[in-house]
């Protein structure tokens, strides 16, 4: 028609879709799946929640979460992110809760080596019979449950607060962790609390495990996590 420009087909399609005029009616929303392990201690997720200053230095909160129950196994003030610091915290966790079947963590130090070689921390964990996994690079959603835990920790406990000493930090961490595990209903758990779905592992920590040999090219004890 002279003097009149017909709208593009995509414009017409978008208008019809907006008003539910397309054949077959409105399109259903895509289903988003959430992966969850079947039982406690099948997978633990571990990471640091960044770091922040306080009166005595810097705090690097170490967090450890059970995938099935969302139970917080560890929320610890650490002065640094060295392997020996992480390992000492893990010993306390293992002695209290036993050993998981698998653990997933980030790719950088002290967790893993980007060259593919075993790190001292990985070898120590594998000597306990724990399979070690790492999140996909640049995919924080791989440890989605732990990321959500971190957001709650920041919003409810860390944001806008100043701490004067390390003992105060750990006291606050312990109190918040107890509420999180024992009192707070979790939507993903049908409003149950994490402690109601968690029980310690029957696999006990061994302070002097037998030495194990791992082939550099073997993935028998190491895997790349794609779970959330």
From TrEMBL:
Coiled coil: none annotated. InterPro entries: Integrase_cat-core, RNaseH-like_sf, RNaseH_sf. Pfam families: rve_3 (PF13683). PANTHER family: TRANSPOSASE, TRANSPOSASE RV3428C-RELATED. One of its GO terms (biological process) is DNA integration. This is Integrase core domain. It comes from Serratia fonticola. Residues 36-202 form the Integrase catalytic domain. It comes from the Bacteria. GO terms for molecular function: nucleic acid binding. Gene3D superfamilies: Ribonuclease H-like superfamily/Ribonuclease H (3.30.420.10).
């Amino acid at each position: 028609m002279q003097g009149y420009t017909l709208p593009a087909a995509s414009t017409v399609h978008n208008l019809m879709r907006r008003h539910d005029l397309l054949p077959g009616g409105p399109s259903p929303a895509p289903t988003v799946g959430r992966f969850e392990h079947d039982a406690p201690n099948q997978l633990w997720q571990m990471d640091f929640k960044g770091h922040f200053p306080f009166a005595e230095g810097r705090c690097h909160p170490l967090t450890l979460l059970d995938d099935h129950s969302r139970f917080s196994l560890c929320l610890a003030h650490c002065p640094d992110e060295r392997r020996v610091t992480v390992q000492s915290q893990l010993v306390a966790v293992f002695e209290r809760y036993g050993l998981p079947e698998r653990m997933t963590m980030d790719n950088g130090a002290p967790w893993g080596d980007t060259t593919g070689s075993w790190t001292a921390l990985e070898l120590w964990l594998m000597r306990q019979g724990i399979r070690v996994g790492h999140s996909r690079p640049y995919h924080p959603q791989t440890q989605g449950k732990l990321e959500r835990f971190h957001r709650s920790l920041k919003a409810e406990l860390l944001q806008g607060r100043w701490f004067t000493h390390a003992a105060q930090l750990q006291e606050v961490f312990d109190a918040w962790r107890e509420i999180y595990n024992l009192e707070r209903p979790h939507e993903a758990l049908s409003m149950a609390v994490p402690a109601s779905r968690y029980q310690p592992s029957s696999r006990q920590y061994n302070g002097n495990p037998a030495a194990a040999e791992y082939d550099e090219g073997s993935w028998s004890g190491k895997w790349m996590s794609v779970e959330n």
